[in-house]
Amino acid sequence: MSMTQPPTRRAALLAALPAFAHAQPPSLHQVDLFERGSAGVHTYRIPALIETRQGVLLAVADARHDNAADLPGRISLVLRKSTDSGRTWTPQSTLVQVPRGGAGDASLLLDAQGCVWCFYAYGPPGIGFRTAKPGPLTGPDVLQVHAIVSRDGGSSWSRPADLTSQIRDPRWHAVFATSGTHFVTARGRMIVPLVVLDENKAITTRNAWSDDNGRTWKTGPAVAPDTDESKAVEIAGGIVLQNVRNGPARLVARSTDGGISFHDARHHESLNDAGCNAGFARYRHRGRDLLLFTNAASTRRENLTIRASADAGRTWPAVRVIHPGPAAYSTVLPLRDGSIAVLYERGDASPYERITFARLSPDWLPAP
Length: 368
Known about the structure:
Elements: H1 7-22, E1 28-35, E2 43-51, E3 57-64, E4 75-82, E5 93-96, E6 102-110, E7 116-123, E8 144-150, E9 161-162, H2 164-167, E10 174-177, E11 180-181, E12 183-184, E13 190-197, E14 203-210, E15 218-219, E16 230-234, E17 240-244, E18 249-255, E19 263-272, E20 279-285, E21 288-296, E22 302-309, E23 318-334, E24 340-346, E25 354-360
Parallel strand pairs: 6-11
Antiparallel strand pairs: 1-25, 2-3, 3-4, 4-5, 6-7, 7-8, 8-9, 10-13, 12-13, 13-14, 14-15, 16-17, 17-18, 18-19, 20-21, 21-22, 22-23, 23-24, 24-25
């Protein structure tokens, strides 16, 4: 008796193989990019992430050389890149290093021309958010907002541009750009959320914005009183939602003028928060318009969680924990291949032991 299968049956089996081979179960892939103590650095903090038009991932973090503290301090910005959706990464390189003072709290934005912007806080010696004073628009006594730009997908970068005099009120003590990932509206407006220590030493969030691809900048009014680091997204109808660090629950406000002024600010009690910077992004998946949100969903910095909303952020029924242990700042980014990337701080005993890249398939998160 011949053991050879009939040609018709063999053809049917071979035809079925590609579909079987490409069927992938829901997955979460994680890799640590920056680990405390490596390269002689005391602590790495403050994740920022972007994907270029060519599909290259750029991950940026603070290298806090002497201790874990914010500016003022000896801080540099370091960079790693991936060309395979985060499976492998280049060795760490220095992106920004200043001879005196420090540079930290990076945020990344892909503009309408495909250029990558990196915004960061430059603190001259002795100058940080709590030590700066009102006075000149910029200068050696001012915490400054700088930007560098790459036109070749992160291979080379421009010299730093000081944007402080365009976005700072001289009555303010300090201002810096919220770290993480920012965006451009459908009409081409660049939006960069700021944190301001105003003339009364009150902390508020407001947006810097540019309608000419970053040549000039303006700053809008405060989103709401007593607000801190925030992220913004644009939803259907050109409405901008601002999701803000503001106590044990996130504050959400709406803008109908492209992210300049806001109304209807209220706490979203289902978005519990540890008083921490978070990730916020719009995500198109299988014809649905979703929002993604990541944060330390607890009363303390732990339990890094991702949520999805299918109703413009009114409800967040899809919830999954990425890391239940100590965790802090995060940013979330939908990738061009349809997967979701999260760059976040985590550890075993402390949230600041390492910065980890997580890439998850859409089906790993329950459908909202």
